[in-house]
Amino acid sequence: MSRRRILVTSALPYANGAIHLGHLVEYIQTDIWVRFQKMRGHEVHYVCADDTHGTPIMLRADAEGISPQQLIERVWHEHKRDFDAFQVGFDNYYSTDSPENRAFCEDIYLQLKGGGLITVRSVEQFYDPVKAMFLPDRYIKGECPKCGAKDQYGDSCEVCGTTYSPIDLKNPYSVVSGARPERRASEHHFFRLSDPRCEAFLRGFTQGGERLQPEAANKMKEWLGEQGEHLLTDWDISRDPPYFGFPIPGTGGTKFFYVWLDAPVGYFGSFANYAVRRRAAGAAIDQDAFLRPGGDTELVHFIGKDILYFHALFWPAMLEHAGYRTPSKIFAHGFLTVNGEKMSKSRGTFITAESYLRLGLNPEWLRYYYAAKLGPTMEDIDLNLDDFVARVNSDLVGKYVNIISRYASILNKHFDGIVLAVDPKSLVKTRKYSMIAYAADEAVREAYENREYGKALREVMRAADLINQQIDQDKPWDLAKNDARKSELHVLCSDCVNAFRVLTYYLAPVLPQTAARAAELLGLEYPFAWADLARPVTRVKPYQHLITRVDTKQIAALVEANRESLQPAAPQQSQQRHAEHQQHAAEESAVDETISIEDFNRIDLRVARIVDAQQVEGADKLVKLTLDIGDGTRTVFAGIKSAYAPENLKGRHTVMVANLAPRKMRFGVSEGMVLAASGADPGIFLIAPDEGALPGMRVK
């Protein structure tokens, strides 16, 4: 077996939110593959970083009253904490806001410019007249110009997958203020993806060899079109200030690299930082061997299928024409559903990594369950919580751990923990347990290599089943009562311990912490090397539990802890939550439980004109609004101070819930609630009716 040299990356998590169980599908999948390759003796470097630039970071930092650098520093530690807890073993976890990343971005840009693949031209861009800023793609929504889907972002349609310019959107509106954006001219920098050189390269890159999964290659063919169709368009790689990112060389700080340019370049920035740290530790690696063309190194990306377009078209075309190594493999995976549906905060299934850990659930339970569901395709996987409990308890406790728990105690009680050496002359008689385990070796190795983790674990558990069946037949507990058969018992115990050792090797990429505890129990060196698979155990320490069962109460508590209640808040919390509902409203990734038209008609939504807006002394988030609803005025305390200055609200129209029961608060009585939107991106956005709507009109 030749020794491979592989640089592996996972997509960079955005530094604007917590890690949740959906994110972890990718990082656990990648980590398992990396651990397996390292066990096989290959040179593997696994790097990642926080994706830190862009308007959402800038706006969230501004809303919190801190600098973008302070925000990304805090989030980096939160992300790293969660990854460490789930045993995602990055060799380097860094940030895209780094000097290394900036240097690579500038070099790639200048190489492309020197090759005639950068062009500058005036474009009409949307401008928010209320917020006085050019709007990034993700801060404009409207109808997709191709399929007509509503509420699509300004760069691509999540329904049909088409990419386009924001000005192509139909009926656009600003996500920041809700205003209809104006079109203004601005000079922008473009990567000429439509150049015949890029198209020719990408046809070969995406269709030749096995860089992409078959379904991904087919999607690329659809986006590239047939020969001569020329469907690729130039890619806008610049943004106007205000913007948190790297300035484009030669622009005097008036243009910045679009975040989607510097984010994948962040893989190289993290690797360069890692190389410096390795060199300082006396273990230098050849950076150029992994980042430049030629040689025998590999560049492998694990990504979600939603960012396939960027990683399989823009990114490799940039690298190819800037003189860098292009990806050897791009492995795309599907999304996570929970109990067969999209994750939902109202159902308590939008679960953060932090809440999972805080409630004391074992991260390896989730690693095992994901692995059991994962294959090499882009299909979504489902976290069925009932199945999660049953599978973990049955496989890990009832099958795997059951083997060692039955025999280790006998070995220590009757034979001082000593494990007999293998008798090569009597394989069938003395190695019937371990031979069952060894028989799965090739199938498990092939499955891990091909990312068929579910298949690998089925092989492991099939072997564990056969071993447990053999134990039941041999009845070692009966042999222990018969002194005349103690030697036979010692042979059985020794062989069974070695069978458990082999299964532990197989499970080590998925359960690294459990494998480390098993290695301590068996007196083995850890981390394991696959080449040592046949090295036997010589002594077993007194048995201690390796993994515990999942309690259904833990799962119920987890769901409840992540549930966004639709019921009135508890008395001691109701005053604050009534006024600050918009401030804390969580994003929804799917429409939740349906209601009837009668339920909706019970809510009296009215157009309201903001007559007056005042600061609330002693309140960090509240604004006191006086609202004209046609037949009088209402006072509402709204948690929108982070998004709106009171003086800018007077005269605006919004929508309020007019029949919400009044709430007595420390600052006065709140007589309703104004409607606002919030989501995955930062900000609170008041709902406003179209021009012509008058105070008191019913919204229905």
Can you walk through the features of this model?
The strands form eight sheets. Strands 17, 18, 19, 20, 23 and 26 form a six-stranded antiparallel sheet that branches. This protein starts with a strand and ends with a strand. The longest helix is centred in the middle third of the chain and has 31 residues, at about 385-415. α18 (about 485-505) runs antiparallel to α19. α1 links the parallel β1 and β2. By secondary structure, the chain is an alpha+beta fold. Residues about 565-590 have low confidence and may be disordered.
Write the layout of secondary structure elements.
Layout: E1 5-10, H1 21-39, E2 43-50, H2 55-64, H3 68-85, E3 92-95, H4 99-114, E4 118-128, E5 133-134, E6 140-143, E7 152-153, E8 170-174, E9 182-191, H5 196-207, H6 214-224, E10 235-236, E11 238-239, E12 256-257, H7 259-280, H8 287-291, E13 297-304, H9 308-322, E14 329-333, E15 336-338, H10 353-358, H11 363-373, E16 381-383, H12 385-415, H13 427-430, H14 432-438, H15 441-449, H16 453-474, H17 476-479, H18 486-507, H19 512-522, H20 552-561, H21 571-579, H22 581-584, H23 597-601, E17 605-615, E18 623-628, E19 633-638, E20 653-657, E21 663-665, E22 668-670, E23 673-674, E24 676-677, E25 685-686, E26 698-699
Parallel strand pairs: 1-2, 1-13, 2-3, 13-14, 15-16
Antiparallel strand pairs: 4-5, 4-9, 6-7, 6-8, 9-10, 11-12, 17-18, 17-20, 17-26, 18-19, 20-23, 21-22, 24-25
Helix pairs in contact: 2-3, 4-7, 4-9, 5-6, 5-9, 11-16, 12-16, 12-18, 14-16, 14-18, 15-16, 16-18, 18-19
